[in-house]
Amino acid sequence: MTLGPGKLCPTHRNILRRKSHRILRKKYNIGKIEWADKILSTLKNEIRTALRKQQGGRCYFCRRTVLVERKNAYESIEHYLDKSKPHYRKWAFSPVNLTISCHACNFQKSTADLGDNAIRASVALRSNAGSFKWLHPYFDDYHENIEVLPGWVYKAIGGAPKEAAAKALIVDCQLDKVETIEAHRHAASNYRVRLIELATRAINAGNKERAKKLLSYAKQIEEDSWKV
Ligand SMILES: [Zn+2]
After folding, report:
1. Residue 156 buriedness (CB in 10 A; 0-12 / 13-18 / 19+)
2. Using an 8 Å Cβ cutoff, are 12 and 50 in contact?
3. Of 64, 97, 129, 138, which is most buried by a Cβ count within 10 Å?
């Protein structure tokens, strides 16, 4: 995963800089179009695909493989600073405000405001804009601040540069809750079974290529490692 210590870089920046996309972003910023409008579908899909590749298919917050089914139902484009807040609308398409998260983390984060007054008043989204409540995907080093132990146990590293932000992420996102860990495990296990079922069906239908693809994904889920 290119999300290693301090290595996450916004490769989707080039997509956002494209002229046709710049026009759409401008329209969004002045309120002529909204996030859910169909006209943004292509742009959003391109961003999602780029982020998925960049993050190795993992959620930024919990680092688990995002279980992607058809139509990206299990994968959310996450706005670190919530786009529904008027003061953050201008950063809805800012490359350093976008990441991919799993459904569980997206749900826990919801519309939480992860900025402070200085950030809210800031013109540019930079690492020194203010104090971010959780670790920031592009400004902070995840593994310098959070240790992920076998069995998906998350620990803020004592004395780390962003220890408080690491703790806030773990607690607010409920990464420390046994139920969350179990829910993830169940979802992954069910998904693996489903993939194997589909692969069997594909073999019976003579579609070896599809079966191979499905089985390799099932294997990936099985091997999903916390050593990321
Ligand atoms: Zn997650």
Report:
1. buried
2. yes
3. 64
The per-residue pLDDT for range 152-176, each reduced to its tens digit, is 889 999 999 999 999 999 999 999 8
Q: How far is the centre of ligand 1, averaged over its atoms, from the C-alpha of 113 (Å)?
A: 18
| Mean pLDDT, all residues of the chain | 86
Residue 205 Cα to ligand 1 midpoint, Å, equals 35
Which sign, positive or negative, has the C-alpha torsion 171, 175, 176, 180? positive
Alpha carbons 41 and 32: distance in angstroms, whole number: 16
**212 CA to centre of ligand 1 in angstroms:** 27
Cα 1 from Cα 7, distance rounded (Å)? 9
Q: Distance, CA 60 to ligand 1 centroid (Å)?
A: 6
Token pair belonging to 61? 């917050």
How many other C-beta atoms lie within 10 A of the C-beta of residue 162?
23
- CA–centroid distance, residue 2 to ligand 1 (Å): 16
Going from the Cα of 130 to the center of ligand 1, the distance in angstroms, rounded, reads: 25
> Which residue stretches of the chain are H helix?
13-17, 19-29, 41-54, 103-109, 117-121, 142-145, 163-172, 178-204, 208-223
